[in-house]
Batch of 3 targets.
Target 1
Amino acid sequence: MNAQPSTAPEPVPPYVRLQAVSKKFGDFLAVDAVSLEIRRGEIFCLLGGSGSGKTTLLRLLAGFETPSAGRIYIDGEDMSAVPPYERPVNMMFQSYALFPHMTVERNVAFGVEQEGLGRLEVRRRVEQILEIVQMSPYVGRKPHQLSGGQRQRVALARALAKRPKLLLLDEPLAALDRKLRERTQFELLNIQERLGVTFIVVTHDQGEAMTLATRMGVMDRGRIAQVGTPAQIYESPVNRFVADFIGSVNLMEGRVAARCDRDLTIRCEPFGCTVRAARCVECATGDTVWAAIRPEKIVLASEEMPDEALGDNRVRGKVREVAYMGDVSICLVEIDSGKTVRVTLPNRAGLAAQRDLRHAPVTLSWDAASPVILTR
Amino acid sequence: MRRTGLFSRTTLVLGLAFLYVPIVSMIVYSFNNSRLVTVWDAAHSPTLKWYGVLFSDGEVLDAAWLSLRVAICAATVSTVLGTLAGTALARFGLFRGRALLVGMTTAPIVMPEVISGLSLLLLFVALEQAIGWPRGMGALTITLAHISFCMAYVTVVVQSRLAGFDESLEEAAQDLGARPAKVFWRITLPLILPAVLAGWLLAFTLSWDDLVISQFVAGPGSSTLPMVIFSKVRLGVSPDVNALATLMVSVVASGVVVATVWMRHRQRRRERDAQLAAAANL
Amino acid sequence: MQLERRAGRRLVAGIPALWLAVFFLVPFLIVLKISFSEAQLAIPPYAPLFSWAHGLPVPRIHLSSYAYLFTNPLYLRSYLYSIMVAAVSTLFCLAVGYPMAYAIARAEEAWRSFLLMLIVLPFWTSFLLRVYAWIGLLQNDGLINNILLRIGLLHHPVTLLQTDFSLYVGIVYSYLPFMILPLYANLEKHDPALLEAAADLGARPFTIFLRVTLPQSLPGIAAGSLLVFIPVVGEYVIPTLLGRTDQIMIGRMLSDEFFDNRDWPVASGVAILILLLLVVPIVLLQRVERRQLEREGLEAEA
């Protein structure tokens, strides 16, 4: 906490630093040489499917697992061999792990008591944090007398009561129903801002990650596939896995036909179309690349156009299926080559207009700035 | 579905009758005046005569006192050891020697008692020869022998209770700054306490009941209650054994009934609480 | 800090392990050792396995007790008889126990714990006294004969005690809870939706039982059968009180050799032979139970 003389341009050292951390369980490499830096005050989301190693990474940070290789630094200190009960880190468990034999108050007080504070101070802190999560009326209840949402708040309060600098949250919202989940997301953001704690959140829910994260890391088979802000990851995925994992995407395989400064021309043989993209990508003429286009970036025009009128980023097809989702509709369009392209339409015109689309001949088009060109 | 239901229900009723008729007949005949178990002396029954005989039999009383001491000691020590073993098996993951510990804690449960008894006696003889301890066979050797097989049961009970609990509870406690020993006392032990108590009771009953192993390791001076009963029974049916059986059955039955009713009451209360909590959420 | 944790763990696992090593493992090695020595009239009544000559140990391993056991038809008969009794008793227990466990598992929630208590209750009362109760029922002037005579079904009492019949009654009676409990634990977990699905697909009740319930309950059947078979092989009390006098079981044989003949090597040899017989079932049982525990662990996680 000693204020260092900050010479202006020096970058802030990362609060959490993982250096080539690996974890093996028997033959299974759960975490594979992950290096990661997380800044103070961030909400960092680790997003990945089951078995991607995200929970193991969190448990390594909490100290429940020791890394097979690599080092973990928290606030500049090497934590690799420090047991969980001595780390300045607290965790909120997916199952909440509330002690069933203790009341809400005893649960929340448990951590504070370990610090050897006086009874009054413990009490004050418990009251304060229960106030923040709005659980004060329930101090005397036991976990089984609480609803799911209330348990979640107690778990959060218990983890925050020790005033950790870093809070690890393992699927914090997974056990809540959808309505409650949305409300709680914003409460979490609120509390994080108020207390200035650094959050590392593990989740498999991309919507949750997008809403919560200041930055996020997408994990795939023990490795970090990409780190960035939600917008960076959505707009500029670095590879096919990330592009496909976050949101939905149309992936078109093709070869680089021509390259002229920033402009690429890609011939997508199987799709029978040519994609023009204005993106800076490391590739040479003849390389195999993938053009990734988000469904909402494709414009669907219902009128038929003559062949000549079709530009490079245009392709003709027929609507096969329309799925009405309320706010949007998803159209599956079979293009002339026989491949299917996914398009989302904002629901401005209402249901009737969507229905008419079925089997209609259409033209799809997109901006040259829309496709992302992936080499991996 | 109906016919299989009818068949299985009939078997259940007959099976329960099969389990209880002998016990009930023992209880009834314990109040019979006649020395012949088979003849109901309607003129002078029911009588508490055999209970009087029982309580004036010094041999039975001595044996009961020895059995009680042995059972309390054996149950207590085996509960401590079994709780440790159960915790290790349920919580330490795959440590070296785990398979051996598993084998050693489950094998005594199914091991024929004659083998356990023989092997323990041979051990005590060998130990006495080698280091002069234990001096002869008696209460001590019986207790030691009982601890070993009772402990296996406690281990299983504690281990399966722990397996039903999420390990993240203990991790959460560590995460909140409690050292492993403290985690055990504040979190693990309170959670498994019902299993530990059940384990103690089970161990007590097994030790109190054991005949075969005790026979091997008892030595000439000391007889446990089952040993005295066995020698009486081998000579034929004797009515005071009926009285003893009635006493033992009623103690156990009332204990089990009270425990079951209490547990059901608790279960109901928990369910009601959970319903209230869910309702409050709406 | 990691060191402190590791030391603590070593202590927790080590103390019970050490106890069991001393009071369970070592005794078996001693039994094994004595089974290879020669009987002699001394205290203890067996010769040491090594003698010392010129400062070096000279092994004196004898196979005499095993030779004796294998050449004496009395032992072989008793060995086979024990296996047969254990197998038949297991089948009887299964035949009686399965429908009972099934009925309890299908009973209404409120009844289930009560019925289960009724099954477990005898288990908590003295085993010896429960076996003894059957003497009163089965002897020539016992309750059963008296009733049969009274209602005129018999004119002379039939010998029920000390027959194979009384032996099986005693064993099934004593070991029935061991069969019912694992079966119930298994049957109770079956998803009723499976039965409904099978019925919906047109299966008749008996077919449903054969093709859905029974295959799913195999682990319970295995656990229950092994829990009965293994201890019955070496059973001592029931055959002594209720069994035949002309054909004794192997557990009784061991005890007689030890206490009456004071032949420790032969008694140890019998123990080793029983163990050899039981190694496979015991290993099987441990595997069944480990799977059970793992499954419960997984369910607790989910």
Target 2
Amino acid sequence: MTRALRTQALPLLVLAALAAAPFVGFGDGFALTLLARGMILGMAAIGLALLVGGAGLASLGHAATVGIGAYAVAWLDLAGIDGAGIVVPVAIGAAALFAGVTGAVSLRTSGVHFIMITLAFGQMAFFTASSLSFLGGDDGYTLYGRTTVFGAGLLQNRLAFHFVCLGLLALVWLICSMVLDSRFGRVLQAARDNPLRVRALGFSPYPYRLIACTLAGGIGGLAGVLLANATEFVSPATLAWTRSGELLFMVILGGASRLYGGLLGALAFVLLEEWLSGLLTYWRLLFGPLLILAVLFLRGGLAGLGRRDG
Amino acid sequence: MTSTLLLVQLLNGLQFGVLLFLVSAGLTLVFGVMDFINLAHGVQYMLGAYLAASLGTVFGSFWIGLALALPLSLAIGLALEWLVFRHLYDRDHLSQVLATFGVILTLDEATRAIWGSAPLNVPQPAGLSGGIMLTPALGYPAWRLAIIGAGLVVAPLLWWLVERTRAGMLVRAGSTHRAIVSALGVDIGRLFTLVFAIGAMLAGFAGALAGPVYAVAPGMGDTVLILAFVVIVIGGVGSIRGAVIASLLVGLVDTLGRALLPDLLRLVLAPAAARQTGAALASMLVYVAMAAFLCLRPAGLFPVRRA
Amino acid sequence: MADPLLSLKGVSKRFGGLTVTDTLSLDLCQGEIHALIGPNGAGKTTLINLISGTLSPDEGRVLFAGTDVTRWSLQRRARAGLARSFQITSVLERFTARDNVALAAQARAGSSFRFVRPVAREAALNRAAEAELAAVGLGSRAGTQAASLSHGEKRQLELAMVLATAPRLLVLDEPLAGAGPEETARLVGLLRTLRGRFGILLVEHDMDAVFALADRISVLVNGRLVVTGDAATVRAHPEVRSAYLGDDALA
């Protein structure tokens, strides 16, 4: 029990800090918007960390699942449906379905081919979104309003939205941790390290990986719902392959060997972006080299800092 | 009338295919020979376009701009290889993807900082600015024909270089038997750097050629880069011949799809919707092809035999 | 001889123009240790891959306990009780020894599509794992990460994993390779205790171990079986002397 506490101390600390943030000087609209973005991306990145770190599958199309979740909100919004009871399951279901179907095909490949085929599927989703002329095509779609919970405009309140994001983030982290610690997770991680050995023991890695893809996709869809609500706007840019690259970077920056590495990476990413863009108009001139240096020198990611066993 | 329109679109597709080939050639060699996945290759294309355009303006001649853009692209390629890429050869593909993604962010932003976000318009090069009458009723831009011509020269030259010369033989051998070739006294590192530099120059060349045809804008390399990945997957990683065929295929499918699909869709959709949906579906076609190849024939059309 | 546990009938495998396994037939009985020897390049590993399902043959059939498994995948054969070890030790380096074996036990203990309960706290799996670890002499190393085990210990660990899948046939690809003298003695003793409990196909270069353990020995040269018989028969066989012992006289 104490061991569990020690290994999970950092993510619990981060979650506690996020809970306290609005009451210790980060309660203004600007800070809350920034933190919400960090938590939402963190949620998507935790799902991706389950794939990259847990299953050893580097997807370069994960932003598509976030985009599909966001587009589900927009589409239902256009149809006049904004109840969370419908929006959330539809968004999660659509994203999970996309991830499951494309995963079923992608998992027939491995290594760099997997990176490329997920990129191809991500691009297909991107161009599909661009083609939805009734949702604004390339220009995107502005929501009439945020998703309602039991008919109430709960998400309109910035503070309430903050805690909804935080609660769901914690829930996603708990679910992913639970899954990795289960029988299923043990087989998944074993297949990541040594698929031949795992097959020789009688397991077929494919269904385990497919379930992981679908789960990560569903989480991406949930993050998409929150993202659409945070910005009240949806556009194909959400699905761009560069977004997938950023998510992948968050996972690696945070440390792929830990699920919460995704969260650390996303928060660091958003804060860094904010800080640098205040420093310099062309802030990516600094951000790009930092990214390169992080890949070259920060091998274990942020979660690996100060840990001797790596 | 429709047949001449079709001919124009075919030529446009060929011309786009040639540009794709010039970009893919370097990418496929670097990926095939060094097993290095370089997302920043598209940046070379963009920089080639910008360098040719702005130097052309400075010196008052597109041709001088083009001539200067080639060695500069080469130099940028060498610098990037020395600064970033050579530290990644021993790393996994994921690290390579991310680090070269960082290079894209940096150089796209640098382009915006130097040249602004608005697209540059590049005038047609002197001497090739007009149209050529292909039939009495059909004129076609001379510059686009020149691009197709450039492809007809470069492709056989490159194939000869890789398949028939000693340097090409060493490059091919070096990819599969690195230790043996090193033992023969060949500096593998320098050989790979050479491949890299030539690839970068070709991509820069493609960008310079593309300037007068397409808008020169930040991020223009990203779209081309992903299409180039489609090309090398379809053509077979490391295969020049495969890159030629697949480039033309992708160029034609993309161009003809954009031209024809909206017309087809107009039968069932409103014109504005048909245009948007048609363009998107056309873009999607090539990715469907890529996914199908990765899944059913991962070695591509022309697999490079590995010993 | 009773019904064989494993039966190869006219199995061939070609790579390009090279015939690596040539219309080979072989029977292995319940409870026997059947050694497969042969010079390097004789096709021993290919044969193991054909038996375990990593490769599928171009011709011929593989019968396991009377069932035709020729077209079965590696994992399906494993589930049916055909367990293998690898020539190059294949364990999960990042897992502890206990978790390695518990994973193997998990393959035989109900569905692994369970997502909620922490597997590390499944006492039945851990008990089974620790029992197998103790049986191979690794009882004290259960909590150690596999990557920090010695080469010989990894060999023992892999054996424990194989045993934990409750197999009927063990296919062991050079289980003694790279083990020191002390480790070899321990592993040979261990294999001896397994005789009678499972059918064992043993591919091994260590001739002392082979002659000490095997009930029957088959000699493979250039993809074909030259002779099958007990130690004395094999030793005396003229073709074995020229083809095998001549090739590798120190063996």
Target 3
Amino acid sequence: MKVLVPVKRVIDSNVKARVKSDQSGVDLANVKMSINPFCEIAVEEAVRLKEKGTASEVVVISIGPAQAQETLRQALAMGADRAVLLQTDQDLEPLEVAKVLKAAIAEENPNVVIMGKQAIDGDNNATGQMLAAILDWPQATFASAIELSADTAKVTREVDGGLQTIEVGLPAIITADLRLNEPRYASLPNIMKAKKKPLDVKEAASLGVDLKPHLKVLKVTEPAKRSAGIKVETAGDLVANLKTAGVL
Amino acid sequence: MAVLVIADHDNASLKDSTNKTITAALALSGDVDVLVAGKDAKAAADAAAKVAGVRKVLLAESDELGQGLAEAVEATVVPLMGGYDAVLTPATSQGKNFSPRIAAKLDVAQISEIVEVVSNDTFVRPIYAGNALETVQSSDGKKVITVRATAFKAAGEGGSASVENVAAGAVSTKVKFVDQQLVKSARPELAGAKIVVSGGRAMGSAEEFQKVIEPLADKLGAAVGASRAAVDAGYAPNDYQVGQTGKVVAPELYIAVGISGAIQHLAGMKDSKVIVAINKDGDAPIFQVADFGLVADYKTAVPELMDALTAAGK
């Protein structure tokens, strides 16, 4: 079984995103970038499937700038077999990412796609669902457990207020939630080995997908800053203040 | 311009997030219809008909809609979109599951988790877990939008719309509902709770977390949250996690107990109306965003707070 895992390069989740002073976007210059945390969980799940013998090959794919090769190497160091970079400097919207992935899937023919439920930069939580819709494949989003058999996947999903289990026929799109697993740290020997694994680079534009954006970003601003309030001396003072504030 | 709101409901009643999404829809247009898609959902449809400002309620029912399958909701909504210029869905886990499918089928972008309607085609939405706000203008003929409900006031009662049945869409892909385990908790859901009490790594153990945080939450009728550090240490389950990679909450009152206030946690709760921090380290970053800070060891402060709440009639 072949597993395809799309991954995205984003600002490291421990770094605070800063808005540029000209309001044109978030400053990405000289900021630590990493694999999107949810993508990392998806890679981990795919690698575990391979270790269990369920998957035969794990291919990671990224759509982004040349530096996304580092992100792919990170995934290879975790245990993926092979990587593809569809290179573009354009910041693509989820629908266009889904269309590019659809074209890539036509070439790779995976049995299942496991991907993060959302990227922590755009926070759209949309690409997986869009990809499933345009492929007419079943979707199982926000997965906290995956049981894969030859032609089906039983997926436990995190929904508001609990869990839901669905069964999808393969091929299918599965998106990973936080509880699916805890990604491993790549060991130094595996990081070295990853440098020798195959990584193909192609122009994203070469897939013949219309990459025109639908949304125009007019400005990016900082949210209103909260200022520190007051320190209270006792729990009683706290309750009195909360009553005055009208929240009790 | 006519706008369709897809209701969040449990078949018997309407969730508050629907009323809030209706308010966002009314900022776009006076012609707002509500779709209630479910199974035996007449009661929820009747509730939607009573919301002020609603023109008409559409009711679609099938087993698959009752199971909440994204494919079924999308197949129900897409054929209706000939009559609408925009479709708005509360950004719940269910809404996030099906809304992007509708956008993809219509070949338009999804405008995710809007917090403000600027004009018919321009919206404000948080990115980077709320560390930045993006104002976007859509060039699509039809707008597919999810709404961060906490950013809008709930539309009240006072309507008397008609309820009309519409066809439920069929599921074309191989997907089958197996079962669901909804937590039967007396506590409200974290994402929509009016009060959230969260615990951090200072708790030191899962037992301590349960002993300290949960009774305080129950006293306040609050949901329970946790910092990532507490979750990673195994003191609280992952679905309690508030933060950039967990749940983003904006309750009326957020009480952070023994939480230092890492960037990643602040990103998930800083839009709360009133923030309380209890931490023995007076220099903890959490105090920079707290409206009321109590510099004290939670071991003494939380029991005192419980007593003070009792004295205040809670």
